[in-house]
Amino acid sequence: MTSINISSVHFKSADSLKEYYANCGLSPAINVESAKSFDYRKTTYSLNGMYLCSTKSLSGWGFEKQAVTDVYFISFTYAGVSAWEMGKVGRVSVSQQMCIIDSANLVQGNYAPGTFTDTIMIEADLLHREFSSLIGYPALERLNFVPVLPKSSKTWPLFRSIVDTIKLYFDAGRDVQSPIAASYLKQALLLTLLESAPHNQSSRLTMKTGEACPKFVNRAIDYMHYNADRPILLSDIAESCCTSARNLQIAFKKYKNTTPMRYLRMIRLARAHSDIVLLSRSETWQAVATKWGFNDALLFAKYYQQTYQELPSQTLLRARIGVIK
């Protein structure tokens, strides 16, 4: 790690903010709520390509993304309201909650007056490489995180402990700063995001073990991911990785501590969870359950609650009332 620094800026006009972003190569379209005054402060902690930005926006303003970027933003709004429009997800409003934004889907963002945030910026390529290292083979599918986590989620408290440590690290001054220590903080942020924030490939981590899997087990898992919406059987999975059903069951028990079909169920639950968060008002969680092969709604709800600590109806309610508008 060679680039470790801190910088603070105070913008008193929308023009100075536009110039700042232009110099960064972003040039978003800036919109301010009032032309009379503007006050926005930003402190950036740089950890060699990963950034922590602490912002205080006393003025209401927003932006429309113009440049193509490929990063994930993990943001927590301590006060006020931050709002994001993200492709199919729609408009997400966040207050005292954690929001995960994929810049590939970002359309625009807005801050209400009096909004204070901490935002971590992680390059998508770095995050996907770290995920591939965790599961032991290349991950071909893009990570798709649940966009807003409830206040009860343990993910942000974990993140905040690392964020506070980063701030203390920089406040200590260069005399005691260590590039090795900074690399551990960066690693901690990556692992906390991948292992504690729900995403479309969480099941690959839920049942992983420390021992390397045989290649045919990894091929079986890839087959499950790419065919999760089809009525596949154990024999189909075994045939896809050129082994017997019995051998596959033995390997999954040894290396994943589960059965192949239970592993497939976890994948389908993760997909169903993502779909429920994005449901339109005319759709039901029961329809999602059926789509992913759960014909018994009560049994689906039981599995869902065991995995996500809430019923599918509760997830849907959070998505429709005050979170996704």
Automatic annotation (TrEMBL):
<feature type="domain" description="HTH araC/xylS-type">
    <location>
        <begin position="218"/>
        <end position="318"/>
    </location>
</feature>
<comment type="function">
    <text>Regulatory protein of the TOL plasmid xyl operons. XylS activates the xylXYZLTEGFJQKIH operon required for the degradation of toluene, m-xylene and p-xylene.</text>
</comment>
<keyword id="KW-0804">Transcription</keyword>
<dbReference type="InterPro" id="IPR050204">
    <property type="entry name" value="AraC_XylS_family_regulators"/>
</dbReference>
<dbReference type="InterPro" id="IPR018060">
    <property type="entry name" value="HTH_AraC"/>
</dbReference>
<keyword id="KW-0238">DNA-binding</keyword>
<protein>
    <submittedName>
        <fullName>Helix-turn-helix transcriptional regulator</fullName>
    </submittedName>
</protein>
<dbReference type="InterPro" id="IPR009057">
    <property type="entry name" value="Homeodomain-like_sf"/>
</dbReference>
<dbReference type="Pfam" id="PF12833">
    <property type="entry name" value="HTH_18"/>
</dbReference>
<keyword id="KW-0805">Transcription regulation</keyword>
